[in-house]
Amino acid sequence: MKDVVYFDAAASFLKPESVIAAQVDFLRRGYANAGRGVCARAGAVDDMVARSRRRVADFINADIAQVVFTSNATDGLNRIVNIILNRFDKISTVAVSDLDHHSARLPWVELVARGKIRKIEKCELDENFNINPNSVPKSDVLIITAMSNVLGVAQDVSAIIRIARRKNPNVITVVDATQYIVHNNIDVKKWDCDFLVASGHKIGADTGVGILYIRDTDKYMPDKFGGGMVMRVDDDEIVLNKSPDKFEAGTLPLTQICGLSVAIDELESHRPDLNLIKYMYDELKKNPRIKMLSSRDAALLTFVIDGMHPLDFGAYVGANDICLRVGNMCASWICRALGFDGVIRVSVGPWNTIADADKFISVVKKIVK
Question: Are residues 305 and 170 in the same domain?
């Protein structure tokens, strides 16, 4: 499938050869369980996990103990809900925005239905569909989507959190950095966030590994229990290990963790070329049937076509060996705010070229006349 143009990086990054090689080598020559063995091979795996954790910590400017490995961002976002509720029996108000992915908001919506949360309030979006920091309501928990997977614009996370803390110094801030982390540097200390999540597969690592940042690890109890997270177990007492171990019950996704640090190295060396987005934006905008929804400077390209369903368009370009995403992107709220049930999204990775963009533009011209 060498001739296929893959324009779906925002859904999942293609894997660099270095990531594949690192994981294959680990599986062939270095595999053992972590945190449970005393042999040299098991010790080498422990060292690998520690190195990967350090690489992630450096990548987001966190401390090692604040980095917890999960299975993906969805897992992290759901775990955060349980971790918070372990400490607080009831949450009064949770603030969200229409930029949110389903994973960020649905767990809280469910808790409203169960009576665990009194209400959900929304941060207002400005005329460009960005979060207006001054509109952030007073809340106990604030969910911030650092970059929408539909519109691809980085939000001012620092300003949003700063204003939220003025209204409630004890607000718990949760940042979904799944799309943001691909294109921008993250500094959790400058952001002053309490929690942050991201997925490995969005930055070139394998599926099955995610990043969960917890600022005050001593403040919270774990949401899972099992092997590797306890120091001592008596008949009526559990003595937990320190973080991150206490949040990582059971066997970790070791192969994926091995590739994660390599993927971060690759990403920092080869970020996606967003000039391709600008180029395609300029060309598609010439067609009167195409309505651009994302901005020219966005990290992705989102549009709709007058008189054509997004699914039909996806099928047409797919038949021409172009992979992209159509639908609501698991972000129903922003699609509705834009006035559409579904959209067309083009997202690029470091592997994409101007020739890929030209092929796409040529196919679009044949389809949309």
Answer: no
Q: Which two tokens stand for residue 244?
A: 């991150």
The set of long-range contacts for 1-5, using a CB threshold of 8 Å and a minimum separation of 24, is: 1/321, 3/321, 4/321, 4/322, 4/323, 5/321, 5/322, 5/323, 5/352, 5/356, 5/359, 5/360
Cα angle 115, 337, 341; round to 5 = 95
Q: Given 245, 268, 291, which residue is the final one in a domain?
A: 268
Q: Is the pLDDT of residue 282 over 70?
A: yes
Look at residue 1 and tell me whether its pLDDT is greater than 80: no
Give yes or no: residues 263 and 280 share one domain. no
Predicted TM-score (pTM) of the model is 0.96
- Report the alpha-carbon distance of residue 326 to residue 303 in Å, rounded: 10
Residue 249 neighbours by CB distance under 10 Å: 16
How many domains in the chain?
Answer: 2
| Main-chain phi, psi angles of 326, to 5 degrees | -130, 155
- Per-residue pLDDT, averaged over 354-369, amounts to 95
Range of 116's domain? 17-268
